[in-house]
Each structure stands twice: as structure tokens, then as C-alpha cells.
UniProtKB/TrEMBL annotation:
Keyword field: Phosphoprotein
Pfam families: HATPase_c (PF02518), PAS_3 (PF08447), PAS_4 (PF08448), Response_reg (PF00072)
EC number per UniProt: 2.7.13.3
InterPro entries registered for this protein in UniProt: CheY-like_superfamily, HATPase_C_sf, HATPase_dom, His_kinase_dom, HisK_dim/P_dom, HisK_dim/P_sf, PAC, PAS
Protein name: histidine kinase
Species of the source: Pseudosulfitobacter koreensis
Organism domain of life: Bacteria
UniProt cross-references to PANTHER family, sorted A to Z: HISTIDINE KINASE, SENSOR HISTIDINE KINASE
Coiled-coil segments: none
Residue ranges of domain PAS in the record: 1-57, 292-362
Catalytically driven reaction(s): ATP + protein L-histidine = ADP + protein N-phospho-L-histidine
Domain PAC: start-end pairs: 365-417
Amino acid sequence: MQFDLDALFGSAPSPYVLVDPDLRMIWANDAYLEVTGRTRETLIGRIMTEEFPAPPDSISDQMLRGSFRRVLATGRTDHLPLIPYPIEAPDGRIEERQWSATHTPILGDEGKVVYILQNTMDVTDLYRSEATTTPSSVPRRAALLQRAEAIATENLALGAMTEFFQSAFDQAPSFMAILDGPEHVFRITNQAYIDLIGGRDLIGMPVREALPDLAGQGFYELLDQVLETGEPLSFKGMPALIQASSDAEPVEHFIDFIYHPLRDAANKTTGVFVQGHDVTGQKIAEATLTATRERFRIMAQTMPNHVWTADKDGGLNWLNDRTYDYTGHVEGELYGTDWGRAVHPDDLELAAEKWQKSVAQGETYEHEFRIRRADGSYRWHLVRASALRSDEGVNTGWVGTNTDIEERKSAEREIAELNDTLEMRVAKRNQELEELHVTLRQSQKMEAIGNLAGGIAHDFNNLLQVITGNLQLVARETPDASPAKARIEQAMGSVARGATLASQLLSFARKQPLAPKVINLSRFLGNTTDILRSAIGESVALETSFAEDLWNTSVDPSNMENVVLNLAINARDAMEGRGTLKIHATNTTISASSGWALPDMQPGDYVRLEVTDTGSGIAPDIRDHIFEPFFTTKKDGQGTGLGLSMVYGFAKQSGGHVTLDSEVGAGTTIKIYLPRSHEQEHDLQPAQPAGLMGGAETILLVEDDAEVRATAHDLLIDLGYTVLEAANADEALEIVKADQAFDLLFTDVMMAGHTTARDLAQVVQRTRPGVPVLFTSGYVQDAIVHEGRLEAGVQLLGKPYTQSVLAQKLREVLGTAGIPQQHHAGHGGGHADAASDAAPVDTNAPILICEDDILILTDLADTLRLAGYQVQEAGSAAKAIKILQSTAVSLLITDVGLPDLSGEDLAREARQMNPRLPVIFATGDTDVPAASALGNCKVLGKPFQDSKLLEYVRTMLPQYAGVQPD
């Protein structure tokens, strides 16, 4: 704003001074300088109250500051008819002088006060009656001034009271306003009211004009009613839509308020006093609390457990329907302390005592006691409760659950009953195993972890193939009585172990060729229950559970079975032979957002297999190494450290993942994630035992290792086949081009030369469509596999292989039964030739084997099945007795040291049921008194070769063939 003060007031005889909102003097006319005794240079820029100070909190100071404050607050002119104010004279004396002042606001463009123009007159002489005109006028003027002083003083006091009232009004926690007249004009509002309606200026405006957004909401009409009737009105939680400005969105508030009539001296209602509280936050909180409580009750009603709530003093006040269904009580019967009606009398006192202590201390409640069912029986429950606390930490109540633990309690009782003898038996058995397998453990122990490449397995398996093939051929020509026979058997065992190590290394490196089938784990693992129970022992409880709608997955069945067996044996060892092994399979979906928890996993659908034990757990410092090859926490010689590395490699090669959760002292859970398959489940037919079958076909043998080729040639010739040989694929192609006839291509995968085995196979399949191809290799890399899986239709025989396995695979690929191979009784070579050693027997009469060592049991059963016998397996004497009671068997083969009865006691029990049953004691003991006492028994000392086992079986069975038990 532009104006010329000097032109307007510079020569005026009345004193004028201009101050800003800080009371800084920025202009003064000559009259002002003269009356104050100041010069322009000393005055301009100074704060008025500093240049002309009055004692703090004096009437002078209060009146001056109050006037300026009113101008700045209202933007209206303020008058001080008479104000006493001291001023310092030029000679330094303080003079008490009387003034009359007018303070006029100068407003800026936005309507705010930017300057205050003070017109001040010195009326000291007039006040003191020193300046007179006529004698008669002095008393009248003096009386007028004194009256003005009295009024000013009263106005000052009234202003102070008004300011105090306004301050209290503004600081009140509730909103307040005073409305006047029939139009309900706003006279006074406090800050809380201004905040509620969005900071609008209301003073002097009728309510309908000031708050048009309240139209149609009933507030105007209620004000009219109070003014007309003179009766107050009050409301709770009334909604009000308030629109702070024309361009703002309406906001819903909830208010508690009262309209109280204001009356004049004649008791006539002249206005309305409005007072209330904005309770919007409270309403929102109440609605949120109601919704939260409803969600809790819905959730609690859907939970499988009992759920209940209690007040802060511990009295029950709500239970879900499942609790009522279980106990048979109706709503209200268990409220307060009546919950004890459902508790077993023997458990109530301690349960109530602990509950009272938890309530008193505000601590979590956890206790086990029996709760009565509706039928009167009791089941154990774990009862937990936690305090509910407000934002300030105040206990407002309790929420609790009852979880049925009856099965756990039963298991604990059973474990307690077995505990004394179990530890003794486990210690004894571990000692026996330590003594029996010390040499084997030492040979399996590796000295260090190296960088083992898959190519090493190829050369290693080729060497093993040469060794195993020649050992089998030598064994055929070696009499059973020869000392060399035992050495050959030992060498064959070492070859088998070497092949296993190579296979496990390939699995960890994800180079093991897999032949996946679409399976359903619930049915697949259900068929392995017996072997798992045998592997973990009688003292480990096995619990399996599978989702009803479990998805299919595509995995190699043989490797899948090895994985589960490996994990079961590891769990058994971690639990030291006692505990609970849980196997659970369910469906799960890994999303992109949750994939961070499972590295290297693609988002998608998976079947999750969980294997959980209750063992000692794994320390945090070794968990990161648990899947490394050759890393083991077992004692020296008790493991190679390749089991879990094989599991890891298998899962990754199958497109899945493995995780490990473990807590020291609480057990371990290993989770295997396998990709979901949308294909139909394959029908997995069990392999049928058969003798050693050869053939008269011609086989094209392709192998670049001369020693391996020579060994394979001899094995094939020994089986009756005609053999064409080629040192590599290029030579084999010449045979194909020469049109030489052959019935099967048997080729190594990894060979030197320009032509690969895959190229050779494609040429044969293209030019001779009816000729099958059988690949063999100890390390296939990516020649015939994609992402670790064999291509569809590809047949592979892994190195090293035995003659028996070779014979079976050839007949499988050729698709005919083949020709039985008979050899003299003196040959050996392990399982490879077991079939030819078997004398004709009645295969409808099964042989019963009772052996608690799963590895020995499996080995014995496989040997007899390959020889053409039917076999029943039992891991304990109790199971063997059940089989004897329900099934006719031709021969009993039993260990002496069994976990329940001894083998001798088992034999006596068997003879009670069938006096003519022949028995073979397969044991490390040399003295078995029951063998001579019972008769028709033989003792087969451990360790023994397969040929010796078959010889004993042949000598025992002819006495019993075709004879049924009495």
C-alpha cells in the first residue's frame, strides 16, 4: 500500500507516530517529536516500549500494550481516552504525564494489520488543572478527566477479565460458542470450535450464513427450538458433515453437544450457549474395536482348537462352539470360575492355582490338565492364555486356547516305559555294529574334500567295470572251497561300495542321469512304509501324513526311495534310535514375493516333503556345511558324509530345492520341494525276480576303453550272445554301412572320435527302425540328458554293472524273456549269478527272513529273490511270529541277536507252530545251542558269501519241499 504520511500528517499540529506489528517506530511527525522531546534520528527504528518504558505490569504498560493487542487482533481502531504514562524528559528526569491516544490500524492487501497509526495528545496540564481559561471551567474539566481516568481503569480491569475469560474459553477442552438473537449470530467462539469448523471467521455472522454446510442436518431447527422453548437440548454421537470451504470435501464428524438457552434480566431467552465434544476418534475406535472383536470371534469359531476369553480378573466370559461341543456344556455354564466343572478333579487345584498366579502377575499361562468330554471321558490338553493389553500396557483381559495332546501324552508314557531297557539295547547294538563294521567305516572315510569333477567318475566307473566283469568271470571258474573264492567276494563288495560313492558324488554334482516318472508321493511312500520301519527300528515311532489332494510330481522313483531312506536313517541316528520320525507331504505354491526365502527356486506349484525327527538337532555353526560332500557330524567311520549331499543334488537336479530347519535339543526338519506335474500318475510295476537270462541275438558292442570292451565282450559271450565289436562310433558306423546284421546297439556314451554315441544311435534308429539302443556310461554329462533327466525313450545302463544286471537290462530292451543260463555249482560273483545257483524248488513256499539290520535284511532278501525264491521279511521276532501265524513258510532264516526275543527263542516259537520247519541261524556267534537241540537246523556264520547262503538253502529245502505245516 502506497501513501505519503508527510503530506497527510507531517505538518499536523496533533502528534502522530507510525509503528509496525512489533511496535517499532518507523515514522513520526514534528509535533510528535516536539511533545516527546526526541529527534528523528534517535527515535526512528526504536521499539516504542523500549524508548518509552513503563514499569512492567503497571497500569500504564498494561493499558498501552492492551490497546495495541486489540488493534492487531480485531483490525479495528482502539481509543485510550486517558492513560497515565511516564516519559523521560530531555534533562533525564522521569515525568508522570497523562495522555489521550487513538490507535488506527492500516491494513494490507490481505486484510491483515501491517501498521498502526498512533495519534497521542498530552493532556497532563489539563488533567492537573494547570491550563485554565476561566475560573468556573477548571473544576468541570478536571472532573471530566478524572471520570475518564476512572473509566479507563475500569475498562482496563474489564479488558483483563475479558482476556482471562477468552483465554479460559479458548483453552477449554470442549468446543464452545455463544449465539445471539433469532438469527443465532455468533458473538463468541473458542479455539476448539474454530478448529472443528475448519478455521472459518464467524464472529458477527448468523449461523445459516456462517455455516451453510449444516443445512438439512437439523442443527438450525434445534437452535430455533431452544430459542423458542427456552429448554436445553443435548445429543450423543450425532453425525455432522462439515465442509470447511466451498472447494473442500465434506468430512463426517461425530459430536456430543448441548444447546443451553441464555436469558436476560427479564428471563427472556435471547441466545444459545453451545458446548460439546468432537467424539469422532472415539466413534472410529469403537467401530474398529467392534469389527476387531467380530473378526476374532469368526476366526475363533473356525479354529480346530478350543478358544476362550476371560476378563482381566480371570473370569471366563466367552467360549467358542467347539468347546461347548466337546464338553457338552451350554453357553454360560462355564463362565467365571465355573470352568473348573470341566476339569479332572485331580488336576483342578494346581490348574486353578497357576491360573490365579498368572492373572495376578499378568504373565502368560501354560499348563497341562485333563478336560472332560461330553461322554464323560477325559483327554489331556495343553492350555495356554495370554494377556490382552491396551496401548498403555494395561491388562484388559485374556485370550486362551486348549490343544488336545492326548496322543503325545500316550507316546510319552510308552517312551517312559521303554526308556530303561532301550538305552541298554541301543548301546549294546551300537557296540556290536562298531565292532562288525570298523574296517568298512575306515575304508569309507575320505581324508579331505577335493574339487571332484564328473569326469573322474567316468574313468573311475570304467575301471570298476573292468574289475567287476573280470571278477565275475573268474568267480565262475573258482570252486566254492577255494580260498580265492572269499577274496573274490570281498573284492566284489569293494567294487559295489566304490560304485555307490561315485553315484553319490554324481548326485551331488547333479550329473546323475535320472529317469523320472510321474508319481504321487502319498501312494509311492505308502509302499515304502515297511522298509522305513525296518530302517529306523522298533523304538522309533513313524508317523506319516499326506494331503488328501496331493499333487503329482515327476521324479526318478529309485532315487526318490534312496532319498527318503537316507533321511530316515539320518533321523534315526540323530535320535539315537528312539523318538518320533514324521513324514508329511503337502502342496505349496512359491510366489515371486516369497521366493527370497528359497534361493534358486522358480515361482510355481510344488509338492513339499517334510521329514522331521525329535533328535538332538544341529548346531548353528555347522548348518551351512551340512549338505557339503564328505561333511559329517558322525564319529569316524560311521558315515561317508555323502548322504545329505546326494539328497541335495537329487532335489536340485529334479528342479526343486532343499531346506533345513533345526534347533539344538528340539530336532531337525528337512523340507524337499519338488515341482508339481500336471501329467497322470505312472503305473509303477515292481520288478519281477528272475534267473540269469541270456540270449542268442547279435549285439554291436561299442566301447573305446579296450579293457572295458574286452570285459563286456566276455560277459556277453558268456550269456550266449554273438558280439560285434567297435572301438568307437566311427568304427561302428562302418559296420552299420557294411549292412552287417545285429539285433541291439550297446554303446558307451563318452568316446573319442568325430562321431558321438548320440549320432551313432540316430543313424541306427533311422536306418534300422526295429533295432533298440542301450547306452552305458559312468558319466553321461549332457549327451543324452537334458537338465539332468534322460531323454524320453532313452535306455541307459550305468557303470559299473554286474552280469546279472546286464542280462536283465538286455532282456528288458530286447523285449523277450531270453534263455536261462545254467552254470556249474562252483561259480560265484554275488548277486550277479545267484539265479543260476538256485536248485529247482517250490517257489510257492516262501522263505521267512528275520533280521533287524535293514542293510543285511535287504541284501539277503534280494539274493534269494534273484535266485527265484519268494521271500517274507521281518525286522523283529514279534513281526516274524505274526507272519508264521498267518502264512505257511518253507524255511526260517534268523539272526540270533534280535531287539525283542532272541533268534533261538523265535525258532522255538516257530517249532511250536510247525515242528517240521527247517531253520538257518545267520549269526556272528559260533555257539548256538538251540541248533542242535531243535534239530533240522544249520548255523551260517557271518560274514558269509551269497553262494554259501544259497548252498545252505538248497540243502535245507529238499527235506521240506511241498510239505505243509501240521
